[in-house]
Amino acid sequence: MSPIRQQFINYLKLRGLAEITIRHYVRSVSLCSRFFNKPPLALSREEVEKFLLHLKDVRKLTPKTINQILYSLKSFYSHFTPQNNFMDSFRRMKEPRKLLQVLSKEEIERLIDASPDLRVKALIALIYSSGIRVGECTKLKISDIDKDREVIKVISGKGAKDRNATLSYRALIILREYYKQYRPKEW
Predict the structure, then answer these.
(1) Strands 163-166, 145-146: parallel, antiparallel or unpaired by DSSP?
(2) What is the DSSP letter of 83?
(3) Which of 54, 77, 80, 114 lies 20 to 30 Å from 9 when distance is taken between CA atoms?
(4) For residue 94, what is the DSSP state?
(5) How many Å apart are CA 16 and CA 133, to the nearest integer?
(6) Contact between residue 65 and residue 95 where contact means Cβ atoms under 8 Å apart
(7) What is the pLDDT of residues 2-36, one digit of tens each?
């Protein structure tokens, strides 16, 4: 691993970014560098602009994806060239706002009932009931479920924040079935 890459990783860790975010930032800088076959600190503003235009016009990436890459590059150059940060002039792309398609209660009930496996039923019920993210669901421990208050403690969720999420009675019943069948020890 190059010293520049390691310094960048250390900088991102000290900023408290999640491991997956750090990997994305490093990968984005590496993509830009490989596009020109030059070290990232040898790139000019014009080259970075050409790379971003390539992502938009040739690779047809979404504005959201391009913005994530842009944030990665801004972070890299603000750390390594704070006195001459040419990334300051770049602005995020406007992202279209799309309405999410929300399933009705009846559709969710049919989805849960059609699930062939109790584990799948438990996952769907839990995620739908509480609104927690899949990554948060994978980190849940039995001790995080407060069945009396019908609440789930989400520890170190997005942004390393703790929070409580509601748990429906229906999801709690399915989780009890899951517990009886699989007898998980901790998770």
Answers:
(1) unpaired
(2) G
(3) 54
(4) P
(5) 20
(6) no
(7) 899 999 999 999 998 888 999 999 999 999 999 99
